[in-house]
Design brief:
- The protein folds into two domains: 36-73, GTP Cyclohydrolase I, Chain A, domain 1, CATH 1.10.286.10; 87-219, GTP Cyclohydrolase I, domain 2 (2-Layer Sandwich).
- Helix content is 40%, strand content 22%.
- The chain contains nine helices and seven strands, in the order H-H-H-H-E-E-E-E-H-E-H-E-H-E-H-H.
- The chain has helices spanning 3-12, 18-22, 36-49, 62-73, 132-143, 149-164, 178-181, 200-203, 205-216; strands spanning 89-90, 97-108, 113-124, 128-129, 146-147, 168-177, 192-199.
- It is elongated and about 65 Å long.
């Protein structure tokens, strides 16, 4: 299968499991690149379709800019987030480890419009402890692809649970969706909150309550 076709297959599989999305992509490296020339042609056609002149000065380089943008925004589609968790340390730690307010930007696959916000990622280790930046890297890799917030939340939790073997994993994501704030219903102050709880965070209300206090404090 040629690289362009492979990219198309990966994009079409974005609604499936993370294993499907990452199949044959490589060990965390971007094996296949986005077909920028094809995007440029498509953007040019969109400009014509809306009644614009793609050859006027202000739009002449727009197709190339959009192609570079998509290459950047969808870079996570060709990365395996799990590689960031393969290096770990064995430490005695019986308390919650939380990285709060991890900013991210993603693209809603329904309207191809951005949604952005913060992810709060926590785990209760059994033995394995990873560098704090690795949690942010996982969020970044999962976010930079055509996504929906609900799936993104579950995928991050699943990855942490599988790779770290933690006693508990929790992911809470808060995001603003431009497909809801600047079009359609147009509610600019709306905020979508999703959560995925695993292990102790799901089964023990006291552990979950401690997590919510660590994340929100008196903000709730």
């Amino acid at each position: 299968m040629n690289p362009v076709a492979r990219v198309e297959v990966l994009a079409s599989q974005s609604g499936g499991s993370l294993e499907d999305q990452q199949a044959d992509v490589g060990q965390g490296n971007r094996v296949f690149r986005v077909d920028r020339q094809r995007i440029e042609r498509a953007v040019r056609e969109i400009l014509i379709a809306i009644g614009e002149d793609p050859d006027r000065e202000g739009l002449r380089e727009t197709p190339a800019r959009v192609a570079r943008m998509y290459d950047e925004l969808f870079g996570g589609l060709h990365e395996d987030p799990r590689v960031h968790l393969r290096k770990f340390f064995t430490e005695k730690c019986d308390e919650v480890i939380l990285v709060r307010d991890i900013t991210f930007n993603s693209m809603c696959e329904h309207h191809m419009m951005p949604f952005m916000g913060k992810a709060h990622v926590a785990y209760l280790p059994r033995e394995r402890v990873v560098g704090l930046s690795k949690l942010a890297r996982v969020v970044e890799a999962v976010a930079r692809r055509p996504q929906v917030q609900e799936r993104m939340t579950e995928q991050i939790a699943d990855i942490l649970e599988q790779e770290l073997g933690a006693r508990g994993v929790a992911v809470v994501i808060e995001a603003v969706h431009t497909c809801m704030t600047i079009r359609g219903v147009r509610k600019p102050d709306s905020l979508c909150v999703t959560s995925a709880m695993r292990g102790y965070f799901r089964n023990r209300s006291s552990t979950r309550a401690e997590l919510m206090t660590l994340i929100y404090g008196n903000r709730r």
